[in-house]
Amino acid sequence: MSLTAVELGKKIKTGEVSVREAAKASLAAIAAREEAVHSFVTVVPEEAVLARAVEVQRLIDEGALTGPLAGVPVAIKDNMCTRGLLTTCSSRILGNFVPPYTAEAVLNLEKAGAVIVGKANMDEFAMGSTTETSWFGVTRNPWNTEHVPGGSSGGSCAAVAAEECSYALGSDTGGSIRQPSSFCGVTGIKPTYGTVSRYGLIAYGSSLDQIGPIAKDVTDCAAILEAIASHDAKDSTSVKREDYDFTAALVDDVKGMKIGIPRDYFGKGLDGEVKDAILRAAAVLEEKGAVLEEFDLSLVEYAIPAYYVIASAEASSNLARFDGVKYAYRSEEFEGLHQMYKKTRSEGFGEEVKRRIMLGSFVLSSGYYDAYYLKALRTKALIKQAFDKAFARYDLILGPAAPTTAPRLGESLSDPIKMYLGDIYTISVNLAGLPGISVPCGTDSKGLPIGMQLIGDCFQEKKLFRAAYAYEQTRAYEHCPLAKKGVSEDE
Prior knowledge:
This protein is α/β, with parallel strands linked by helices and 491 residues long. It has 16 helices and eleven strands. Strands 1-3-2-4-6-5-10-11-9-7-8 form an eleven-stranded mixed β-sheet, sandwiched between helices.
C-alpha cells in the first residue's frame, strides 16, 4: 500500500503482485488503521472484494484489461451511487439507501479494472470543510489524529494518506477535493466542470459539483482522470472533449510557462508558514524556467458570499427530494403527510445541512430572489471574467489551497462562518468552472502538511499536470506517521 496506484498497477501487470494480494493488503490496512482514522462509512465484505479480485485477475491474464489501474484497490466517496452497496452521503436520511445503479464515473473505473474496497466518509451531503458533520462520526487526519482531515472529501483523502487504499474518488463543490488533499498531504485535482459525468453523484450544488481523483502523486491523478473522464448523454452538463490523453502531459519541463501569483491570495488571513511554503514552491518552478509574476485578481472578497448563496440555493432545491416518501429514512411517528415531511427532514438532516437548506430557501423566496440569488449569479459571471482576463496573460495561477494547515477537531464547528472563510482560495475555481490541483509542498512546525494550488483555464488540465509534475520531481512523497508504522501479516 506504500506504492502509488500506477506503481502497483505495473507490478500486477508483470505478475509480481496478484490482484488478490493487493486487495488483501488494502483490507488489512483498513482493519489496522480504521479505528484511529475512520475513513470509511462502509467497507466492502472481504469475500466480495476477493471475488472481484479473482474476476479482474482473469481479465488481466486474458489480456482484456491492459490499463494502468487494473487490479488496484480504490475507495469511493459515499455520495456516488454504487449498485448493491450502501450509499449514504454520510446522512441519517440516506442511512439505509442501496442504489439500483452505479454512477458513471465509478462504472468507468470498474471498466478499467478497479477493485472497490469501500465507501469513504464525508461531510453530510458534502456540506462542510472538516468531515465532522457526518452522521457516522468524524474522520481524523492520519498525520495527527487530533486534527481534521479537511472536507468534504476528508474520508477519501485520509484513506489515501493512511495507505488504506491506493487512490480514491472525491467530489469538489467549493474545494472539497483540493482542501482535504492539502490537509492530508496527498494530491487531488478538480477537473474542468463537465469533464467527468455527474450521473449518479448525489447532488449538492449542480452547477458547481465535479468528481475528481485523489492519489499520492500527479502521475496517478492523470491516469485516474483518463479513466473516469468521458462524455455522458445521461448528464446534460457533460462535455465531449477532443483529448483525454492526460498522461501525455507528465513531462519535467516548465520553461517559458507564465504563472500568475494573485496578491489578493497572500494578504490578511493567510498563515505565515503556509505562505512561506507556497512561495518556496513557486521559487522552485521559477528555477526550472517558469516565468512568475504577481498580479491583482480582484473580486476575491465577493467569492465566498456568491458561492454560499448559489450553493445553498441549489442545495435547498436538490435536497427537497428527501421527504420520507420514496426511499430511505422516514420518521416513525407522525400524523398526516405534512407532519411526516417535517419530522422526517428534521430528524434525518444534520445541523449544517439544515442551515444551508434554510439559507437557500430564503435567498430563493419571493422578494429576496433578486436581492440575493440573481446578484450572486451576476457576481459569478464577473468572477469568471476576472479569470478570463488573467488567463489571457498567464498559463496558470498559483496560490495556497487553504489559509492554514488542518485545524484541531471541534475548532471549526463552533464557528461556521470561520469554516466558510476557509474556502477562500478554492471556491472561485468552482464558480468559474475551472480545473485546479493541490500538490503537497511541505509541512508546518507542527508536522502538518501544506498544499500548493495550481489553477488552469477551462480544459487546460494538461498545463496543470505539467507544472505539478515538474514541481513534484524536486521532492519525495512524504508518508504520514500512521502509514509508516506498517501492517503486520496477522492483520
